[in-house]
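Practice problem. Given the sequence and the SMILES for S-adenosylmethionine, write out the predicted structure.
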Amino acid sequence: MIVVVQYDLFGEVKQKLEKRAEARETAAASPKPVVTRRRQRAFLGSPDALAHSIAENVTSGWFSHHGGGRMGIPLGTVATLTLLREPLIADWLLTLEPAQLPQFFKEVWAVQWLSRPDLVEAARPLHDWIEEEPDEYQLRAVQAVVHTSIHTGLLDLTAHDDPYHRSQADVLSPLLTGLRHKSDKKHRGEYHTPPSASDLMARVLIDSDTHVPGMTIREPALGSGGMFRSAAQTLRDRGLNPHDVRWFGNDIDRLSTACAAVNAIVWDLGPKVAIWCGNSLASPDGGLAKALTHRAAVIHHRNSVVEQAQFEHKARRMLDAFDRLLEGAPA
Ligand SMILES: C[S@@+](CC[C@H](N)C(=O)[O-])C[C@H]1O[C@@H](n2cnc3c(N)ncnc32)[C@H](O)[C@@H]1O
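Answer key:
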């Protein structure tokens, strides 16, 4: 479900559908549009089909290596790989032994924490297991997931510098729903909207007349954030910047919101994102006010840690300079 706060949703959709029909008629009579550079560089093949084949291969790799029932581990492994922006790292990653993977993963999350502590905090179920010393069987299964993801082409999709290219599919969505047990999925109603449908909805709601600064996009049943992806891509297609939008989304399921938080980084939704786990029916704002307070506290904590580290670094340099001065001084 997606709610664009300042719209009369149904009136707006009807009007836009009428406008689109008119525009289609005009376009049929006009020459073909010029293909932009961005379009020419678009991903070859179907990104969504690739996301599904990554999910299938990772799921079978995880279970055939007896990884166990903790979904956060295979999901978190793939999520960690989606945070890498250098496709050439794939060859090096394939050389790592299972026991070397946790340290590498910790470093990836630490780097992200410096820029997006709020989203890394929301993604906790995808990386908390790394600190819990996974056993050798789990680590072998994690290695199988790394190899399978790379061989199936995950980094071709997600390691792009350009957010437009790496936002062409939600790789975590089919993996999240695929790993979930059938009855659990039914109980949760966890059937994500197909990207073709969410793309269409976004194109109907957002056009070149859309006034973006000050706009809030609110998703009270977020899943892994597929609606946000469609909205962000449509904004980019219309020459608008997703960074100008406030993105507020929650889901009752912690793994879903964790995936959406990682996706918000991968899809580069910008600085004004709040994603939290909460029941939308439990309070009028679905927990938004509390989530914003928590987010501010997390960012404040990051700022204090960075300030402290900078202070210690400067103090260490001053002491080193002082030592060198004393070494040079006559006794
Ligand atoms: C059908 S999925 C839709 C996900 C996403 N909006 C999409 O279109 O792909 C429904 C989602 O709503 C979440 N959900 C169900 N009840 C909820 C509640 N009371 N508050 C927040 N989220 C809820 C589920 O966990 C699930 O992820």
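Check your answer against the key. The radius of gyration is 23 Å.
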